[in-house]
Amino acid sequence: MQTAAILGPVGVMQLELPPAHEQLLPGVPWGRVGAFPTPAYWAYQVMSKRVLGGPPEYKLGKTLSHEVAACLLGGHGIPAAVGLAAYASLRDQGFLEGTPSEQQLLELLQAPLTVKGRKIHYRFARQKARYLSEALAHLSANTPPVETGRALRDWLLQLPGVGSKTASWIARNWLRADDVAILDIHILRVGAAIGLFPKNLTVERHYFALEELFLSFSEKMGVRASELDAVIWYEMARSPLSTQVLLGNPLPSPKVKPAKQRQSNPAQASLLI
After folding, report:
1. 56-81 per-residue burial string, b: 16 or more CB within 10 A, e: under 16
2. What's the domain range around 234?
3. pLDDT interval class at 272 (50, 70, 90)
4. Phi, psi (5° rounding) for residue 166?
5. Residue 265 has pLDDT above 60, yes or no
6. Residue-wise DSSP of 119-168
7. In whole numbers, what is the pLDDT of the chain averaged over residues?
8. pTM, whole model, 2 decimals?
């Protein structure tokens, strides 16, 4: 058994996890709680988030149409801040209500956006305007199923420009769903690093097989899949060093060597979420 402390606002909570050598899933040991990116490390991060910040808030929009727009305007090749700025621009000008035309959306998406004090041009404006116009029209004319995340995800796949990852992202956000997984590059890198995802499976061809592995992983760990993928995403997105470790690149050596090496304390593990 390995233990770690979570320093909460009202005291210290002791977290007990299985021994590092014990198998969480076949070929996937728990690992040490203080060793990035082991399953024990992620279990600690999820529990810390619960104690220190409460459950994460996933929703980006107030309606499902808004949620679809926010996720459709983000994704591959578009920085999160830029996608959210484009979404906010359309929302604040009232163009996510009803069924705006492709041309109306295109004109707005081609206008410069202010992101962190800089003027930015949104990429793929023409393509996204077409996708979003058709998606909003489809949502206006139909009632999507919301009984489960998977039912909503599968329904969303019929929308133009919405693939498995984007559909899962929308379903997770809107329903706080734990029966789908957002397999972005960060989740894929972590899964490959710990031996969860076989090398012969690719997200393009085997999305749902990889999803089942991730859902089993979170279930065995005893945490919600929605929490786990959010925690992994936030840490990996905010910490370039974490990405470098997973890519196998050497980290820069410190300029000043510490006089005394200290043993890492799991209780002081950084919470980068």
Report:
1. bebebbeebbbbbbbbbbbbeebeee
2. 2-56+183-246
3. very low
4. -65, -40
5. no
6. EEPPTTHHHHHHHHHHHHHHHHHS----SSHHHHHHHHTTSTT--HHHHH
7. 87
8. 0.83
Domain count across the chain? 2
| pLDDT exceeds cutoff 70 at 229 | yes
Rounded Cα–Cα distance for residues 180 and 184 (Å) = 13
Query: Are 164 and 78 contained in the same domain?
Result: yes
Task: List all residues 6 or more positions away from 240 whose beta carbon is below 8 Å from its beta carbon.
Answer: none
Question: Which two three-digit tokens encode residue 260?
Answer: 């005394």
- Tokens found for residue 116: 């962190």
Tell me the residue length of the chain. 273
Task: Specify whether the CB–CB gap between 52 and 271 falls below 8 A.
Answer: yes
pLDDT in tens, 14-29: 889 999 999 999 999 9
259: pLDDT strictly greater than 50: no
Question: Among residues 175, 206, 229, which one ends one of the domains?
Answer: 175
Residue identified by tokens 């995340």 is 149
Q: Model confidence at 93, in pLDDT bands (50, 70, 90)?
A: very high
Task: State which H helix or E strand residue 232 sits in.
Answer: helix 225-238
Distance CA 63, CA 45 (A): 30
**Does residue 261 form part of some domain?**
no
- Name the residues annotated as catalytic: 165, 184
> Residues 75, 144: one domain?
yes
C-alpha–C-alpha distance, residues 183 and 172, integer Å: 12
In the predicted model, what is the mean pLDDT of residues 111-115? 94
d(Cα 142, Cα 159) in Å, to the nearest integer? 12
Structural domain contains residue 14: yes
pLDDT of residue 251: 42
Instruction: Region of 31 please: left (phi>0), alpha (psi -120 to 50) or beta.
Output: left
Using an 8 Å Cβ cutoff, are 56 and 49 in contact?
Answer: yes
Q: Tell me which residue of 76, 113, 100, 117 sits closest to 204, measured CA to CA.
A: 76
